[in-house]
Write a structure and sequence with these properties.
Elements lengths: L6 H18 L1 H17 L18 E7 L5 E7 L6 E3 L4 E9 L16 E6 L3 E6 L5 E4 L6 E2 L4 E6 L2 E6 L16 E2 L8
Antiparallel strand pairs: 1-2, 1-11, 2-10, 3-9, 4-5, 4-8, 5-6, 6-10, 7-9
Length: 193
């Protein structure tokens, strides 16, 4: 199983503590082993086969759609704890900037999440925000300014719950969106517009 970078950072401590704990305090050892295995499972990074055209979902999860101040359309994907948390490029493009903004850690599905910590990946045609949630503490971008990304290519991941929002290019309108609020999507595979 392929794992997202950083999986070992979070999994090794509980797994290492589980071994001696199994001999000293078996219930604690079992709990630590289970926690370490959960962390490895959470950071899974499966292969995906994407479509040849369209804007694909940047994350696994449930969809929200809204029009923003400048009239453009933002499609958000809330990642539940059971979803894959590796994020993918919605379209091909050249990365113009990767900006980190410190902030709060409110639930990613709430309106208060606008002030949450985030990494914004701006390309020549769209913006992708990786947003930390209540339990997410690390956003790991994989790209840098100047990188060329393909549709569905891995661009980062958020550890432990989050949301990914894609601000569609200006030529897309609400009528072009192919998913509805509450739909479940898969990163790099589901066409959202």
């Amino acid at each position: 199983m392929r794992l997202a970078p950083g999986a070992r950072t979070y999994a090794v401590p509980p797994l290492a503590l589980a071994i001696p704990s199994l001999f000293v305090l078996p219930p604690a050892g079992v709990a630590l082993a289970a926690l370490g295995c959960f962390v490895l499972w959470f950071h899974r990074d499966p292969e995906r086969e994407g479509p040849d055209s369209g804007v694909v979902a940047p994350a696994d999860g449930r969809v929200s759609v809204r029009r923003v101040e400048d009239g453009r359309v933002r499609v958000g994907v809330f990642m539940n704890v059971t979803d894959v948390h590796v994020n993918r490029a919605p379209e091909a493009g050249v990365v113009a900037s990767v900006d980190h903004r410190a902030g709060a850690h409110r639930p990613a599905f709430s309106k208060e999440s606008e002030r949450n910590e985030r990494v914004r990946i701006t390309t020549d045609s769209y913006e992708l925000d990786l947003i930390a949630g209540a339990f997410a503490r690390r956003i790991h971008p994989y790209v840098e300014p100047g990188d060329t990304v393909a549709r569905g290519e891995r661009v980062g991941h958020v550890s432990f719950g989050s949301r990914a929002d894609v601000l569609l290019p200006p030529e897309y309108d609400v009528e072009d969106v192919r998913v509805a609020v509450g739909d479940t999507v898969r990163a790099g595979e589901t066409v959202i517009a």
